[in-house]
Specification:
about 475 residues, alpha/beta, about 15% strand, globular
C-alpha cells in the first residue's frame, strides 16, 4: 500500500506549465508530462511511495486526454519511476532502490543540488583529538537528549560573544539543523495552526511544518540584488501576515536566506520580531549560514537580540561551516521551551551521539579559524561562478551575493524544471527553482551553490551550457564557451 497520496489538484499545481515551459513545442505531450512528473519525484517534491491520481481524474484536471495521461504513466513505469499495485493505483518509486529510500546519484553525475561545502581540511585531525577524550564519557549510558555540558557551554559562549547573552541552560544539542526544525515544529505547531514562511524558502523546513499539521502562510522574499521587490516590501508583508493570519510560529532565515541570499537589516529585524510578539507567535530563525559573511556592509547580532525575550528561537549547526557529515546542530531558546523539547524528543531519538559532540565542541571553540577559511573559499567560488555565468549566459540575472552558500539566478524564462532535466542528461544535478516553493512557482529561477572548487565550476557551467542548448527556443551561450564544450 502507498504511504501517501497526492490529489489531482495538488499535482497539477506542482506540474505548472508542463507542456512546453513557455518556450515552444518540445515533443509529444505524454513525454512532456512524464518528464515533469519524473523531476518532481527526483527532486523530492513528490515523495517516493506516493500514490498518483487516477488517470481519468488527472486528465480532467489537466484538460488533457486520458490517452495522454495513460501514456505518461506507462513511460514512467518503463523508467522504473512508477509501479502499479492492485488496490493502490500507481505509486512513485526510484529505480534501483527500495521504494521508501532515495537512490544515490550515479557516480558520473556532478551534484550541485546540495548547497554544502566539503569537509574542512583539518577535520580528521579534530576527530582524532576528540577520540582521545572519549574514554572519560564511557562510564555513562551514552544517551544524551540535551547535549554535553561542555558543548552547550561552548555554544552559549559563542552567542554571548556575538552579542546575545546566553547560558548553557538555553541550549539544546540536536542531530543537525533539520532535526532541530522538526522538533520545534512539533512543539510550536498544533494541527491547523498557521505558520508564516518565506517564499521561496528551504524546502525541508516547510515540509517539517506541514508534517506537524501547519497551514502555511507564504510571504514573498526580496531576491538579492534583483530589483523589483525590496527588503522593506518584504518586512511590511511579514508584519501584515502576522497581523492577519495570527500564526503560532514562523520560519525565517534573516541572514543570507536560502535560496535568495538576502539579509534583513536591523530595523527589519526589530519590526518583524515586534509584530510576532504582539500576536504571541514564536519565530524560528535559521542561522545556519548567518556567520558566512563575505562582504556585507554591516555585522549583525543573532536574530533574537533584536526582539523581546522568547519571541525568537535560534537554530544553528556545523553543516554549512565544518561539514554536513558532522550531524550536530542546536537550538537556542528559553529554558522552559528547552524542557518541552527534551520531553518530546524521546519518541523520535534518544540523543545526539557522544563522539560527534566531542568533535563539535572542538569545532565550535575554533569557529573563528573555520570562518576565516570558509569565507576565503566562498569568496573565490562566488566570484568565479559569477564570472563564468556572465560569460556563458549574458541573458541571465546573476546577483552578487554578499554571503551565504548559494545564489538565486534569474533565467529570464520559465524553464527551470526543463533545464534541470536537461542538465541530468549532461551529468549535472541541479535544484530547480520550484523546489523552493510550495505551489510550483519560481520556474524562472535556479539555485546554484557558490561553495565549489574552480574545476567544479568550470565543469558545471559547461554542462549547463549543453543543457541550455537542448531546450527549445533558448539563446545559445557565448561562442567561446561553446567551442570548449564541443
Amino acid at each position: 500500500m502507498a504511504d501517501a497520496s497526492i490529489s489531482a489538484r495538488a499535482l497539477v499545481t506542482l506540474l505548472g506549465d508542463w507542456r512546453d515551459g513557455g518556450t515552444g513545442p518540445s515533443g509529444p505531450a505524454y513525454a512532456a508530462l512524464a518528464d515533469r512528473v519524473r523531476l518532481l519525484v527526483l527532486d523530492g517534491r513528490v515523495s517516493v511511495g506516493t500514490r498518483l491520481p487516477a488517470e481519468r481524474e488527472l486528465a480532467e484536471r489537466l484538460g488533457a486526454s486520458r490517452t495522454t495521461v495513460a501514456a505518461a504513466y506507462r513511460r514512467l513505469r518503463e523508467q522504473d519511476l512508477l509501479r502499479s499495485i492492485r488496490g493502490s493505483g500507481s505509486v512513485t518509486r526510484l529505480p534501483g532502490a527500495p521504494a521508501v529510500l532515495p537512490a544515490p546519484p550515479a557516480a558520473e553525475h556532478l551534484d550541485l543540488s546540495k548547497a554544502a561545502p566539503p569537509a574542512l581540511p583539518w577535520l580528521a585531525d579534530v576527530a582524532r583529538d576528540a577520540v582521545e577524550e572519549l574514554p572519560a564519557q564511557l562510564a555513562g549510558s551514552g544517551f544524551d537528549p540535551v547535549g554535553l555540558p561542555e558543548l552547550r557551554l561552548a555554544i552559549a559562549e559563542r552567542y554571548t560573544a556575538r552579542g546575545l547573552p546566553t547560558a548553557p541552560e538555553q541550549v539544546m544539542v540536536t542531530i543537525g539543523a533539520q532535526h532541530a526544525i522538526g522538533l520545534l515544529s512539533k512543539v510550536l505547531v498544533g494541527r491547523g495552526d498557521r505558520a508564516v514562511i518565506e517564499a521561496p524558502t528551504y524546502p525541508h523546513a516547510y515540509e517539517a511544518l506541514r508534517a506537524a499539521g501547519a497551514r502555511l502562510v507564504p510571504v514573498p522574499v526580496a531576491p538579492h540584488d534583483a530589483g523589483g521587490l525590496d527588503v522593506d516590501d518584504e518586512v511590511g508583508a511579514l508584519v501584515r501576515a502576522f497581523g492577519h493570519a495570527n500564526p503560532s510560529t514562523a520560519y525565517l532565515m534573516p541572514d543570507f536566506q536560502n535560496p535568495t541570499g538576502r539579509s534583513l537589516d536591523e530595523d527589519g529585524r526589530e519590526r518583524v520580531l515586534d509584530a510576532a510578539a504582539r500576536q504571541g507567535a514564536v519565530i524560528v530563525a535559521d542561522e545556519t549560514t548567518a556567520e558566512l559573511d563575505l562582504d556585507r556592509e554591516a555585522a549583525f547580532r543573532p536574530f533574537a537580540a533584536y526582539g523581546p525575550v522568547g519571541s525568537a528561537v535560534l537554530v544553528g549547526s556545523l553543516g554549512k561551516t565544518a561539514w554536513g557529515g558532522i550531524r550536530v546542530g542546536w537550538i537556542r531558546a528559553e529554558p522552559a521551551l528547552i524542557r518541552r523539547l527534551v520531553a518530546i524528543r524521546a519518541p523520535g531519538d534518544l540523543g545526539t551521539p557522544i563522539l560527534e559532540q566531542l568533535i563539535a565542541t572542538r569545532l565550535v571553540r575554533g569557529m573563528d579559524e573555520i570562518l576565516a577559511f570558509r569565507r576565503a573559499e566562498l569568496r573565490q567560488g562566488r566570484d568565479l561562478l559569477e564570472a563564468r555565468l556572465a560569460e556563458a549566459f549574458p541573458g541571465w540575472h546573476v546577483p552578487h551575493v554578499d554571503g551565504g552558500i548559494a545564489t538565486w539566478i534569474g533565467l529570464g524564462a520559465p524553464v527551470s524544471s526543463q533545464l534541470a532535466l536537461a542538465a541530468r542528461a549532461q551529468g549535472l544535478l541541479i535544484a530547480a527553482g520550484p523546489r523552493f516553493g510550495i505551489d510550483g512557482a519560481f520556474e524562472r529561477y535556479l539555485r546554484l551553490p557558490i561553495c565549489l572548487t574552480p574545476d567544479t565550476i568550470d565543469e558545471a557551467v559547461q554542462a549547463l551550457s549543453r543543457a541550455w542548448l537542448a531546450l527549445p527556443g533558448t539563446a545559445a551561450p557565448e561562442a567561446g564557451l561553446l567551442a570548449e564544450v564541443v
